[in-house]
Design brief:
Blueprint lengths: L3 E7 L17 E5 L3 E6 L3 H22 L7 E6 L7 E4 L4 E5 L13 H18 L9 E9 L12 E10 L5 H10 L11 H12 L18 H20 L2 H10 L7 H9 L3 H25 L14 E6 L5 E6 L10 E6 L4 E3 L16
Parallel strand pairs: 3-4, 4-6
Antiparallel strand pairs: 1-7, 2-3, 5-6, 7-8, 9-10, 10-11, 11-12
Helix pairs in contact: 1-2, 2-3, 3-5, 6-7
């Protein structure tokens, strides 16, 4: 006899996008502000004090923008023990990790680091907690169907399992483009992050070459080249478009709609908020984008001069340095690699069109994207 078992299992998970390195030599300290617990290690107190000031300054602006205040004080951890820079928001843990060294990223303009990253990550904390379906103690669940073979002996309680169907129920369903887009938007009139010329260059290049990410492609990371950055850019641009056309209050309304336990579609969420589904909003955004860039590039097209391209392999070709008294230059390129920052050193001779490749010896092959 087949027995059916339906089980709802709450899943408690601790997720980390960064590698964890233990530094037992560090001495850690903590102080509290009205809304935050600030944790820092020796050598980072100055950054921690500035971070506390920034966090309290932007707290009322973000919480008022989303009409939401986290249940407990948010922990902010300042780190500066590795040759690394980033920020991370663990919204189920109500925790932010900040690397004190500013992020110098070639695809974005210059911004004040702590003001930018703390506002960005706290916008994640507030917006994503606002969108939670089951609170921050239950990040998700599974409905499971289990079937068993008929018992062969009387002393066997259940037969051997022969079927299992597991259906996940996520506790948060905000797509990546929206999560990152509104975190870059921050709040009305925020100026710690802005639509700089680097971002515009990437989006403009995709628009005029009919290579924009589709609505579905914007929903995922894991891309090669500048694909992941394009998810950020496209999300930022679309979030700005939504705020300017429909009013910035729509952002909060979308988070409220996505917190509905039975809402799992960003398409339907848009329709329930503004009577237009997400695909139509995206199509209108793309039309507006292409018209704008067409007007901006018309003068260039009229006087178009075709350049002499000497190197076109790789997504990343940058930082050329000329050798003294010669037509030889060295540069960095990610040719034959998948990701933007995985570069090798190359030398090119203009006189002979000779390129000496791969001057940096590759020690391992961790620079290729997965093929599945």
């Amino acid at each position: 006899m087949i027995r059916l078992l339906i089980v709802i299992i709450s899943v408690y998970a601790s997720l980390s996008g960064q590698a964890k390195y233990n530094h037992p030599e560090l001495e850690w300290f903590t102080f509290e502000t009205e809304h935050f617990n600030i944790h820092y290690h020796d050598g980072t107190e100055r950054s921690a004090r500035e971070a506390a000031t920034v966090a309290e300054t932007i707290f009322p602006k973000i919480t008022q923008f989303y009409d939401f205040v986290p249940e407990d004080k948010t922990d902010i951890i300042l780190k500066d023990a590795d040759d690394y820079s980033n920020g991370a928001a663990y919204y189920y843990d109500n925790k932010i990790v900040i690397w004190a060294t500013p992020l110098n990223f070639e695809l974005r303009g210059s911004h004040r680091w702590l003001q930018n990253v703390i506002t960005h990550e706290y916008a994640h904390i507030v917006s994503l907690q606002k969108s939670m379906k089951m609170g921050n103690r239950i990040p998700g669940a599974y409905i499971q169907y289990m079937g068993y073979e008929e018992e062969k002996r009387k002393d066997v309680l259940y037969g051997f399992p022969n079927s299992l169907v597991s259906y996940p129920i996520p506790g948060t369903v905000v797509p990546p483009w929206l999560a990152e887009g509104i975190a870059q938007y921050m709040y009305d009139n925020a100026d710690w992050d802005h639509w700089d010329t680097h971002r515009d260059m990437i989006l403009r290049d995709r628009a005029i070459n009919d290579n924009l990410l589709s609505f579905n492609e914007m929903n995922t990371f894991g891309k090669k080249g500048i694909g992941n950055e394009s998810t950020y850019n496209s999300g930022f641009a679309l979030s700005r478009y939504i705020a300017y056309k429909y009013g910035s209050g729509i952002i909060k309304d979308l988070m409220v709609e996505l917190s509905n336990p039975f809402q799992f579609s960003i398409n339907d969420a848009f329709y329930n908020v503004i009577d237009i589904d997400g695909e139509q909003v995206y199509d209108e955004f793309i039309t507006t984008l292409k018209l704008r860039y067409e007007k901006l590039t018309n003068p260039i097209d009229i006087n178009h001069i075709k350049p002499n391209i000497i190197i076109d392999n790789g997504t990343t070709n940058m930082f050329p340095i000329w050798a003294p008294d010669s037509n030889v230059f060295a540069y960095l390129s990610n040719k034959n690699n998948d990701y933007f920052g995985q570069t090798d050193l190359y030398v090119y001779d203009l006189d002979s069109s000779f390129r000496k490749e791969g001057l940096r010896r590759r020690l391992f092959c961790a620079n290729l994207a997965s093929r599945w």
